[in-house]
Amino acid sequence: MDALDVTELDLGALGAPDRAALSALVSRSGAARGHPPLPEPQLRAVAKEGPGTAPAASGRALLGRRHGSLAGSAFLTRATDGTTVLHVVVDPAAKDDGVATELIERAVAAAPADSPIHLWAMQAGPADDARARALGFVPERDLLQMRVALPLPDDVVQATRPLATRSFVVGQDEEAWVETNNRAFGGHPEQGSWSVEQLRDRMKADWVDLDGFLLADAPDGAGLIGSCWTKIHWGRAPLLGEIYVIAVDPRFHGQGWGRSLTVAGLVWLAGRGITTGMLYTDASNEAAVSLYRSLGFSVDHIDRSYRHDPGAPIGRSGP
Questions:
Q1: How far is CA 246 from CA 24, 92, 192, 216, 257, in A?
Q2: pLDDT tens-digit map of 56-105
Q3: What domains, with CATH codes, occur in the chain?
């Protein structure tokens, strides 16, 4: 097996040839797996879509070439808690052949030495578990992608507490949404630290439909009960309608509003002709998993995070 020729670059400053090669790699991987190989911020940074790319664009990309062709890439980005997040994409034509392992080793060497590294495997399977274990990573977190057929059965909708919702209004709702969302996700590694600027940037993405960004006003006029932001994945087959971000202000926990907002989002998606609903939730969030199962969701696959702590060994240490 020939060694990789690895080049490390700022993700936000890739030249046109490298960006084109990287975009093509990501597209090939996604087509082969039927699932995007990267989360949305990194995908948009690779595509260099200006709005919303700031978090990912501040990271690094390690491009691994073999015989002049891009065989894979590793992406190092900084999480809001100061730790490092690592994603690896391998060309399906390479059939891995040690590419992922070498890129992970090189990425660990390039990452800050004083903080943990979270290696994510999308659609994680036994091979990902074995590779992570051999390189000194330990399983840390499972993110479930759950799906449900739409429209929901009538009895499911009728068993849900009614809740009036309205669409997000630009210039009016940004601060209230950010405050509510961050209270709802306090301490969450991805969702608990939005800013108004980040929200405004994200809302400029081409998929955003404000009609499907649903808010429920608090009865006392003080802020929001919560929100359900939907997203339609137009390029997927089947078309997926995602509950992209859903949040209930802690003031209103325990009143059934999480179910009400979820159902409101799914009903909206079904009204747009979407036949498969989707969302992500942490496997450790037993209350959320139970709620979604009660609505008919089941697990489609697991995205898994593995942790490597400073000072832990790294290298091919066996199975």
A1: 32, 34, 12, 11, 11
A2: 446 899 999 998 899 999 999 988 788 999 999 999 987 667 999 999 99
A3: 5-115 (3.40.630.30), 151-274 (3.40.630.30)
pTM given for the model: 0.90
Our measurement of the distance from residue 186's CA atom to the centroid of its chain's CA atoms, rounded to an integer in Å, reads: 18
The dihedral through the CA atoms of 227, 41, 72, 308 has a sign that is negative
- Spacing of C-alpha 216 from chain mean position: 24
- Model pLDDT for residues 304-319, shown as the tens digit of each residue: 999 999 988 776 544 3
Tokens of 280: 């992500």
The amino acid sitting at 306 is Y
- The one-letter code for the residue type at 129 is D
Per-residue pLDDT at 81: 82
E strand or H helix that includes residue 73: strand 69-78
Q: What span, in angstroms and rounded, lies between the C-alpha atoms of 67 and 71?
A: 9
Amino acid present at 167? S
